Amino acid sequence: MRFSSTIRQLQDAVTKVSQAIPAKTIDPRYDNVHLTLENGMLTLYATDGEISITAKCEVETADSGNIGIKARTLQDFLRSMYDTPVTFSIERQEISDHGTVFIATDKGRYKIPCLFESKAEKTEKTYDIVLDLKTAELQDLIQKTVFACSVDGMRPAMMGVLFEIEENQITSVATDGHRLVRCRKPITIQVEEKQKIVVPSRVLSIIQKLAQHENVSMSIDEERRTVCYICNNVVLEAALIVEPYPNYEAVIPVEHDKKIVTQRTDIYDSVKRVGRFSSIGDIKIEVSGEVLKIMAENTNEGESAQEDLPCSYSGDPIIIGFNAKFIEAALAHLDESEITIELKSPTTAVIFKPGIQKENEELIILVMPVRINN
């Protein structure tokens, strides 16, 4: 087998598919990038058993065949090289499935081991729901929710983002039990009834890196166990989380009687500064009249901080405590310059949302308060 290409072209394809390979794996089946030569096309494939990524690139070849190369070895070599034409020549050892890849560039000669393989037989899946999404919209849905996913393996459903698909609308939801995000956007699709799937957060983090073109196709299989994303010449297939997602709507308050309107950057910067003075990472927010106070203290070191910000507020004075990092993350994922904070009491969930919602879109970020010592 022999083919020629450029370092940059191969590096781009290998980098994309290698994202399916975990940093640490004890199963050697998932160590390799699988290369298939056929009809002048090189197809690269990698998987960890749950996620698989396929990428294609044109090469100069008249040969066909299938080999596997250790992903880390191939990726490290390509990363270390400058962009130049490169030729791969693969020779098989006698009476063995093992072989050697001889790599030639304008300045060097290299060789790495490989494994000759039979062509993988993929299980064909039937996808009965297909969504064509603008990349910017999908990226926005992911970016605004994936940060709130749980990392607790005891609650697997919450380690992903819930997507609810219904006629003319898609909703993404993420929660870790302490905060919750719900983001809605309009779409054009015909479905008979609302569909719900939970996509692992790792899959969505990979899609954020792969989705670089104008449109992305998102397909869901008829058994609701697999999702497929197609971004130009890259295909990602992944297993969905099948555990039922918690009833998130039950925790979203509907009777808030207090509302704060303030500037996002002002409160975001203030929380970052004041939060550094807390011994346990918590801050207190006190609102009275048109003044919003942010306070924190470290009694062990004799440190404290307080900042006063202007706001619009007409309710009774209130003092409420938060985890500073949760508030920072919530504010970082709101785009509008003016935000609204809706609350009821020091012990009920607080909602952060843009001051003005975009037409046919909605974003709310719910954060649970913490107990404070007055």
Percent in helix:
10-25%
Q: Indicate the multimeric state.
A: single chain
**Number of helices, where a helix is a run of at least 4 consecutive DSSP H or I residues:** 6
Described by strand count, sense and barrel closure, the largest sheet is:
12 strands, antiparallel
Which architecture name of the largest domain does CATH use? Roll
**Poorly predicted residue ranges:** none
Q: Under CATH, the topology of the largest domain is which?
A: DNA Polymerase III, Chain A, domain 2
Query: Mean of residue pLDDT?
Result: 92
CATH superfamily of the largest domain: DNA Polymerase III, subunit A, domain 2
Q: Structural class per helix/strand content?
A: alpha+beta
Percentage of residues in strands: 35-45%
Count of extended strands: 24
Q: Look at the structure and give the CATH class of the largest domain.
A: Alpha Beta
Radius of gyration: 26 Å
Provide the number of structural domains: 3
| Strand order of the biggest β-sheet | 1-6-7-8-5-2-3-4-16-15-14-9
Query: How widely separated are the two ends?
Result: 74 Å
Q: Give the overall shape.
A: elongated
GO molecular function, one term: DNA binding
Domain DNA polymerase III beta sliding clamp central: 133-247
GO cellular component, one term: cytoplasm
Subunit structure: Forms a ring-shaped head-to-tail homodimer around DNA.
